[in-house]
Amino acid sequence: MKVIERYFSNIKNCIHDFSINLESIHSSVSDSRLYSQALSEHKQLFLNLLLSTSQEEIETNTLQLVHFTIEHDISYLFLYSELITVARKLLGSLVEQQDFENIADINRYFTGHEDRISVLYLQKFLKQLTLKNELRLSHISIMPDKKFMIHYESHIRWILNLISYIQQNEFNDFYPELDPNLCEFGLWMRGASTSYLLSTSHFQVIEKLHINLHDLAANVISYCQNKIFRPATLIHLMQRIDYYSLEIGNEIAFLNEIEESSKDPLTHLLTRRLFDKIMMNKLDISKATGREFSLMMCDLDHFKNVNDTYGHAVGDIVLKNFATILEQTLRKSDYIFRFGGEEFMILLPTTDKEEALLIGQKICDITAAEEVMVEGRALRYTVSIGVISVLIDNTVPILQNTIDRFVIQVDEKLYLAKERGRNRVE
To answer: What's the whole-model pTM score?
Structure first.
């Protein structure tokens, strides 16, 4: 389009400004050079598409941009926002220069790009989602003892059937079971006979996630059969379904660990050896969704004096008392670990730092007011707490040292609370 060529510098400035804003956000999260390289390449591919002069160029450059976007886990929402930002700024330039005759053409031009990008993105996204779920199936297949994961296996096959239904583009009535009580996974949940399993908060979380997932699937089927078909809506729905599926897998894996009797024998809290596995899953979810969570490390103040003065039996009573305080104060969805000795680690899903600090202060206050009766005498103790929020950028690989780095950060906050007088939260 000649009008696009005329406003070439405006388009370049729009993309440059957009990328600068993105870089400033990213700099607070990570200094990865790989991210900067990917951003630069993405910007160039986006510019190439907008400046394409033939239909063949448009199709080739759209394919390259979407392929790059999918490969680097860049969300459709980001790509759409980028396109809309450039379109609005360009239209603003036209209005400022009173170039009204080209406004309709510019609208059609960008709508055409949006339609092509969304169709292609949906195709490639569904292929990637298929590969991810097939990989999950292969991981489960080589597990020496699947336990509850065998039921998650049936759930993944249900997801693959849903993806296949969208891909076939026929939109008949042969779609996966939409009733959460009648699919294979739902039948297992309704028939689960292990009493402790039914009573766990994790089983209840799975039930809610499973119902939400089926509600979304019903929307997918309804939308596919609707005469007005917008790929962007399907992308959003399937991204939510994948998120719920990941959460279900996380909770099922957790039930497997409970099955292995991996609780601390004294406090009945989770053991430290479970922490890395759960932390890894939560980091994966945070990376996929952009939602933060918090870590809290607690250490009983002057606990050595308790053991030296009253003996280890009394020390054990204090530890069990504090474990009870944590269980009664925290939510059922929170993870509580006995991290070692008198140290406790708490993982608070979907909780920002401000909320976590309030929870930590509540634990401090309740602990300081608690009395432990020992041979007719009231024993009081306090706790120091460190808190950090955790949010990982989607370009950062999740490795063991990633987890270790967050543990070090929350431990430093705990040390600060000790240094500043104990019985406090930092």
So the answer is: 0.57
